[in-house]
Amino acid sequence: xxxxPRIGVFVCHCGVNIGGIVNVPEVTxxxxxxxxxxxxxxxxxxxxxxxxxxxKTAIKExxxxxxxxxxxxxxxxxxxxxxxxxxxxxxxxxxxxxxIRDQCSWVHMHEAEKATVKxxxxxxxxxxxAALLEPQTEPxxxxxxxxxxxxxxxxxxxxxxxxxxxxxxxxxxxxxxxxGGIVRRLYKLYPTLADSSEVIDPLIEVVKSHKNxxxxxxxTLKEVLGYVGNFHVTLTSSGGDKDIDVGTIIVACGAxxxxxxxxxxxxxxxxxxxxxxxxxxVLKRGNVGEPERIVMIQCxxxxxxxxxxxxxEAFPRSDTAELLRKILKARKEEGWPYxxxxxCMNAIKNAILVKERxxxxxxxxxxxxLRVYKEYEDFYRMARDLEVRxxxxxxxxxxxxxxxxxxxxxxxxYDALSGLEVKFPTDWVVLSTPLRPRRSEVLLARMLKVxxxxxxxxxxxxLKLRPxxxxxxxxxxxxxxxxxxxxxxxxxSGEAAAARASILMGNRKVVTDAITAVVDEGLCIGCGxxxxxCPYGAPKIEDRKSKVREILCRGCGSCAAECPxxxxxxxxxxEHQVLAQVKALLMPEA
Amino acid sequence: MQKGVVVxxxxxxxxxxxxxxxxxxxxxxxxxxxxxxGGRMAQLDKTFPxxxxxxxxxxxxxxxxxxxxxxxxxxxxxxxxxxGSVGNFKVRVLKKxxxxxxxxxxxxxxxAENCPSEAPNEFDxxxxxxxxxYMPFPQAVPRVMVIDKDNCLECGLCDNVCPANAVNxxxxxxxxxxxxxxxxxxxxxDVFDPSVIPQYGYKRFQNVITAMELExxxxxxxxxxxxxxxxxxxxxxxxxxxxxxxxxxxxRKWINHPYCSSICCKYxxxxxxxxxxxxxxxxxxxxxxxxxxxxxGFQEFVNxxxxxxxxxxxxxxxxxxxEDPNTNNVVVWFEDPITRTVQxxxxxxxxxxxxxIPRKGVxxxxxxxxxELDSYGFFKSADAVKKPLDTTVSGIFACGYCVGPKTGDxxxxxxxxxxxxxxxxxxxxxxxxx
Lengths: 590, 434
Fold this sequence. Notes:
The complex is a heterodimer of chains A (590) and B (434).
Chain A: E1 7-12, H1 24-32, E2 37-43, H2 49-61, E3 66-71, H3 74-87, E4 95-99, H4 101-106, H5 112-130, E5 140-142, E6 146-150, H6 154-165, E7 169-173, H7 181-184, H8 196-209, E8 213-216, E9 220-227, E10 230-237, E11 240-246, E12 248-251, E13 256-257, E14 273-275, H9 276-285, E15 293-297, H10 309-313, H11 320-334, H12 343-357, E16 362-367, H13 377-385, E17 389-392, E18 400-403, E19 409-414, E20 421-426, E21 428-431, E22 435-436, H14 441-448, E23 475-477, H15 487-507, E24 509-511, E25 517-519, H16 529-533, E26 539-542, E27 545-548, H17 558-562, E28 568-570, H18 575-586
Chain B: E1 5-8, H1 12-23, E2 28-31, E3 46-47, E4 52-53, H2 54-67, E5 71-74, E6 77-85, E7 88-95, H3 110-114, E8 118-120, E9 129-131, E10 133-134, E11 146-147, H4 157-161, E12 174-180, E13 182-185, E14 189-191, E15 208-210, H5 211-218, E16 239-246, H6 264-278, E17 283-288, H7 298-307, E18 312-315, E19 320-323, E20 330-335, E21 342-347, E22 349-354, E23 356-358, H8 362-369, E24 396-398, H9 410-433
Parallel strand pairs in B: 1-2, 1-13, 2-5, 13-24, 15-22, 16-17, 16-22, 17-18
Antiparallel strand pairs in B: 3-4, 6-7, 7-12, 8-9, 10-11, 14-23, 19-20, 20-21
Helix pairs in contact in B: 1-2, 1-9, 5-6, 6-7
């Protein structure tokens, strides 16, 4: 840009968040004296409607062609300020941010003066970069109005149906011969005690007959190429491969029931020590009989252990798939650190079913905390009315299971109320185990480039505000693939993922970020290091030159750092721009 | 342009539903009863378990929502009448007078600076005061003042000082009729008033407060500037007790909230950790029945609260709270689960975690919509398992806490907001085909 930079600086008080520590008026006055700064002001909340209006007014009034906001983090607020610049007719990439909250007022809350000095440093750096900013154009991509749903469980089927009903074509893929997922194998559901078939069968029926749904069973993913709007997916089965082109992908491949290793609570040693899943099967077949007593133990393999620092350290730099493999291996023995959310209700359900069939059986549930959240409290009440016994035991001391000389099992646990050891002779011991992530996620996560969380489940884009989005555009999560959920919660997440995917497909196009790598072909020697290092497969060597496919590039900068010829630069993060910032920091008077 | 949709309630669930629908091409009328959108999330300090600043992550979402050309925001407005059926609802909205011209007001706040009349600040849970002409909180959307006529002295000072000439004390209520295809209800929750159970001492003892009051006190933009002080003497409390399940899991006829409100264990642990971060020397005890830290990352968070922050968890449901009249310290009487004896312990401050209950006026709204409520007073699902967010009326959906504690936290509310958007798109698309 030939035009002389005219920079406007807006310094935010963030109420007392910044203003309570950093001397904001002083920083503003300082900014006014910096090169190319035409205008500076401070606002109580720059992100409020008033603050944004002030930016727009100043752009017009002072004919600003660059904007710097010194406030919080670009992670949450950059899109907002960029949008504001755009509304005022300024290219959104002529905007720069200085984070004087996290990096000044928060970390230096006990050193107000130094925090103010540092805020000035950061503003000076931002202004130095802003003067060199260039306008950028965001590439626009066509979005195919076809979706791929991976996993035909209750969440996947719900998502597929929702999109199909909105008129989008959906490929619904499952590794099993039949759709229905984990729910199809269940017997009864809590809290209605209805047959699982009542929920799952009608859904299967509609999914199978819907004209917009192509149900592909006994198939798995082999390869995923492409990007939002234009994914090329290869599916594979014993019958061969199938290629499809889709605009969005919803991952709904579920979770598995944790199976305790042999010997844990004598599982696999005595055949009357079983899991809730196995009891479900026994009840389904109707051969529970009339046992004198059944003892259930909660949190077997859940809420155990802590994620080790070594595991955390590996995250997020390491290959996510490698991380998951490590976690899975460690967890196999000691169990999972999280609460699996559904096991308390599941145990109560099976206890009620036993009581209904055999009222004389004494059903004892050993628990630490009973997590019957929401209106499931009524369901808990129902079990107590049926005289199911809930015994709170001291969790830290795992119950011991032995076999008596008469062949019966005996569970010894410490009662939390009396503090005494109690012994329950019993016919069955039933272990409540958590849902755990699938091993096949390793491959899936790698193919889709979706990160894995430290608990082993796929990670959402933002834990609070983007629960079904991932950090890969066009890829969404539904159901237990992102952590334990019950059926209504899975259905809700399926519908939510469908909503997010439908927005992209309904608009038929999407705008992506302009911060991508640019290759200077004159300097490129076609060594291929960029192609090797890129986690997103963006650069490709063609005719001995690197070509970056912009749409795949996430702007991480790995290739630019690696390039031995310095042939690659990043838009918006050019070497001259970054060096100007460094120079502004180290040589403030220059 | 497709058929419009009315979204009732501008909390995080309603905001998500509105944004998703607008991005999907629907015209959205977002109707909010109070002067600003933002809902409960706007009142929170931090969110568990990531400790993100609540307002910092909410504010961009609020602005993104109302900026969308397909969203028409109607604040300080209430739905008065709904007629018709799915695909064809006629919704009558009453826009209450703000006594401020929305088009002229710039939200500069000069009127509030000059206003001589004060009233308790609802946004800060009535800790501290606001003026009779006010904005509920600095990041309010829209950024427009409102005059609270009940506390207005009619002195006319605001009118005299307003540089935009925006004050209009003659403003009349306005009725708006909207033709829409579907309705989404996202009216949220109220907090149970703990003074209903007198033995907990709320409103009898100054140093017994609710968790929502604590939340405002901890918030840097709250009435105390983020300084944790106790009400009786303004001193920093060194020992704090949390009492869980105030009015929840309680079947007593005169209380009758048998359900678990799903979020209190988690936010109590969050607040305890926040206090520890503010004042590392504080001694904190959480009295609870069952520690319900279900859901992603919460058990791990509780473990950290114990090991890293040294918070004491006492499994006991205290029977009574009394006050030491000399120090205003609060004494909690409880059964010690280990010795099985009645014990008492003195604290500088006691925080009650009350259950969440249906919004006031929800019965009336349900009647207007023709939708049924469940036995607790939340919106009833058409099918609790298969169609959790469909109300009993076709074309009317519900999300967020107004469907009861089946939600719980923010991510659940966001997912539900998106899910109702999906349901609307689905149902209206099917009507079009038919």
